[in-house]
Amino acid sequence: MAKNDVCDPLLAPVVDSSYQSCSSSALKKRKYHRSKGVPVEDVNHPEHHLDSSLHQPNSIFADYPDFKRVLVFLAAYLGIGSLCFFLVSHQIKGNKTNGIIDAVYFCIVTMTTVGYGDLVPDSVVSKLLACAFVFIGMALVGFILSKAADYIVEKQEIIMVKAIHMHEKCSPVEMLREVETNRSKYKVITALTFLLILVCSGILFLCLKEGLDLFDAFYCVCATITTLGYGDKSFSTSGGRLFASFWILISTICLAQFFYSVAELYTERRRQSLVNWVLSRKLTVSDLEAADLDNDKVVSAAEFVVYKLKEMGKISEEDIAVVMAGFKSLDIDHSGTLTIADLLNPE
């Protein structure tokens, strides 16, 4: 659609800004690819663009935290926490094995709020340290690490789609479209797959290395990943606690990610049901009156689109008011349309 084809005042500012931003971004792409030695004709090729977006996480998931920063925060927390708990290890009672491993294990158990009770603080200093580190750990798990886990799960969606359609010939364009269309579903499947792998590995380790029977191992895994942590069954050997230091952190975050993905899928399905209902229901006279924003007894395509978007809950009256205020400020001659003269001759 050409820019000049849009005459409706409701859509003109949106199309105008989109046209300018697209032209600007296209020019920047050409300049960038010329400097990199990439032929200009390949820049706007859809498969070239989509294929590169499958391998460059910043092109799709630009709002996720820097993994180096996540690792720095995690390493700092575990390093300082383990050192503090190691220094006060004589003030912690319970079933002890190796001093360093116990300190890391106790730090992880505190951080994830599992709290088995096999190691507990037994002095004012150690209790104050535990109180401080549990709040810091909850913030770290809840904000930074959960975002990183969400990023990892979404990045595995491409691999999962490729595996599902292994025997089909799918272009990068079709692959990306499939991921975008069923993003919530693939997030649930991916998170569930990781969770089952972690549950099975935990059960297997507890059976082989900790000497638990199959039922007790399953019971311990469930109590751990849900952070229930009764403490009657836990990791009691130095090797088990070393394994648990990694496994507990990953499995508890993965379970939280799975529940979040399920809730997201449910919300997405309800939103889609609302959209389908809005698009399929018959219009009434009252609908036409409500859609007639300028009260001229005629509903234009732009007014119809705005009305339907409001019904779907995608925009609100406040959003429309803000956009219209911006349009009126640009419409210098009050003609109800935007022209180059309006932009070149501001008040």
Number of helices: 13
- Can you tell me the residue ranges where pLDDT is under 50 for at least 5 consecutive residues? 1-64
The structural class is mainly alpha
* Percent of residues in helices: 55-70%
Task: Quote the distance from N terminus to C terminus.
Answer: 30 Å
Strand order of the largest sheet: 1-2
Total strands: the figure is: 2
Q: Which whole number gives the mean pLDDT? A: 77
Q: Helices and strands, in N-to-C order?
A: HHHEHEHHHHHHHHH
β-strand percent reads under 5%
Name the shape in a single word. Answer: elongated
Radius of gyration: 28 Å
Main sheet properties: 2 strands, antiparallel
Task: Produce a short descriptive summary.
With 347 residues, the chain is an all-alpha fold. It has helices at residues 12-36, 46-55, 67-87, 99-111, 124-164, 172-181, 183-208, 214-225, 238-280, 285-291, 301-311, 317-330, 340-344, and strands spanning 92-94, 119-121. Helix 3 packs antiparallel against helix 5, helix 5 (124-164) crosses helix 6 (172-181) and helix 5 (124-164) packs across helix 9 (238-280).
Can you walk through the features of this model?
This protein has helices at residues 12-36, 46-55, 67-87, 99-111, 124-164, 172-181, 183-208, 214-225, 238-280, 285-291, 301-311, 317-330, 340-344, and strands at 92-94, 119-121. Helices cover 69% and strands 2% of the residues. With 347 residues, it is mainly alpha-helical. It starts with 11 loop residues before the first helix and ends with a helix. α5 crosses α7 (183-208) and α7 (183-208) crosses α8. Mean pLDDT is 77; it is low at 1-64.
